[in-house]
């Protein structure tokens, strides 16, 4: 087995690809080594490919852009590292054909994660490359699950260094506004979901009361961020209206009282940074002003 130096550049490159699913050469450079020449990143990726840990495809429609992903062997190696053991391994992108079919959405998710990572570097906050975790499985019982496009961990150095978490949904306008808005209901069910105890019911003598499943992972339920792409301003406005309409149907739910729900165009995130006032308040549908994503949980 090829040994990858833990903590070194090769380790980080493989860990990022195993966790992010896919990234272009330029995206990998901005994630793992923005302070060096991009040629060093290209050499590192070529080395890992020669060792069978990663592979690549070329997207001709994007100026022959090279897109990298971890091989089955690379995922096997990376899954042994403590930093990647907390979450189940990703669905493997088995071959170049599968990679091409998933590239558009996967690269948009990677670009969204980069926006948060670069913004944290600029602000002096803490958001490491592996603090962006795509496709984390959250069971709802009965075979159902909520799988956000990404889970974000972020520590703000202001306000006493608060730890923030967010579920991020990246929408590229491949589904209708109503189907996008329906995701709010799934997150509301996750917020209220209490697993059924295994076995026959018995008296609860001095036992802890049952609680929501998400509390095993999070101190607070992560805020919910919708990042909108793949359409112009009119399409963005339509999708925001659909999300707000869904919140009115959930107006009596504790979910909306406890969880900030925000939406912003990806173009605004890339232009101004996620911490800028580019986010539309979804959980407060009667307020049209924009805020930063790190706003108070109770506006």
TrEMBL record:
Entry-linked InterPro entries: Replic_Relax, WH_DNA-bd_sf
Pfam families tied to this protein: Replic_Relax
Protein name per UniProt: Protein involved in plasmid replication-relaxation
Organism expressing this protein natively: Streptomyces brasiliensis
Lineage per the UniProt record: Bacteria, Bacillati, Actinomycetota, Actinomycetes, Kitasatosporales
């Amino acid at each position: 087995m090829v040994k990858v130096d833990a903590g070194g550049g090769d380790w980080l490159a493989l860990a990022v690809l195993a966790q992010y699913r896919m990234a272009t050469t330029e995206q990998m450079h901005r994630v793992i080594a923005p302070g060096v020449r991009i040629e060093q990143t290209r050499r590192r990726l070529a080395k890992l490919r020669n060792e069978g840990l990663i592979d690549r495809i070329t997207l001709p429609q994007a100026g022959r852009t090279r897109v990298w992903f971890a091989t089955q062997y690379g995922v096997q190696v990376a899954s042994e590292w403590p930093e990647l053991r907390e979450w189940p391994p990703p669905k493997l992108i088995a071959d170049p054909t599968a990679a091409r079919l998933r590239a558009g959405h996967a690269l948009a998710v990677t670009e969204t994660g980069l926006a948060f990572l670069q913004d944290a570097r600029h602000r002096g906050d803490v958001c490491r490359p592996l603090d962006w975790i795509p496709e984390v499985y959250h069971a709802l019982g009965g075979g159902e699950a909520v799988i956000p496009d990404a889970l974000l961990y972020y520590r703000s150095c202001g306000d006493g260094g608060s730890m923030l978490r967010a579920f991020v949904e990246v929408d590229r306008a491949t589904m209708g506004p109503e189907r996008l808005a329906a995701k709010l209901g799934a997150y509301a069910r996750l917020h209220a979901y209490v697993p059924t105890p295994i076995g026959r019911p018995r008296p609860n003598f001095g036992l802890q009361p049952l609680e929501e499943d998400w509390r095993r992972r999070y101190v607070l339920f992560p805020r919910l961020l919708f990042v909108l792409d793949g359409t112009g301003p009119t399409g963005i406005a339509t999708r925001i209206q659909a999300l707000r309409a869904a919140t009115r149907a959930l107006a009596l739910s504790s979910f909306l009282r406890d969880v900030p729900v925000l939406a912003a165009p990806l173009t605004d995130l890339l232009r101004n940074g996620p911490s800028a006032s580019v986010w539309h308040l979804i959980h407060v549908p009667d307020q049209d002003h924009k805020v930063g994503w790190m706003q108070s949980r109770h506006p």
